[in-house]
């Protein structure tokens, strides 16, 4: 059991924006390299799963999060999707990595794909809302990282979009 489960959801949700700001400043000062993952989840009709966080940049985002020390990126992807959305994915497929800077620190993002037809159940702590959307009608605003990751994915699929390095 995670210790955060002992904190009432409303209190946890209220503390997340402050914790995010502190973590952002700390990363900017320390410049320690970080790693995270994002998972592009589609249903069997090709609709894309997006979510809205209770903290951080506003807008719709992909499921995912940070890797724990020594954690395999695919295990982190499966863990994050389960923790945030209650979804049990049978597998994820790595489609690439993106080197970027987050909070002033180097960051490696592992980008995965998966297919799932279950309905997400947002944890109401980190994630407030999660829904599948048709690719031709994605909600706005999409946050910048989500937009970049989707462009990377589209480039990998060979539909003419730019591929990020």
Structural commentary:
- The protein is an alpha+beta fold.
- It has one domain: Alpha-Beta Complex (Nucleoside Triphosphate Pyrophosphohydrolase), CATH 3.90.79.10.
- Helices cover 30% and strands 29% of the residues.
- The chain has three helices and seven strands, in the order αββββαβββα.
- It is globular.
- The termini are far apart.
- The C terminus is likely disordered.
Question: What tags apply to this protein structure?
Answer:
alpha+beta, 165 residues, 4-stranded mixed beta sheet, Nucleoside Triphosphate Pyrophosphohydrolase
Show the helix and strand layout.
Elements: H1 9-30, E1 34-42, E2 48-53, E3 60-61, E4 64-66, H2 73-85, E5 93-102, E6 105-115, E7 127-133, H3 144-157
Parallel strand pairs: 1-6
Antiparallel strand pairs: 1-4, 2-3, 2-7, 5-6
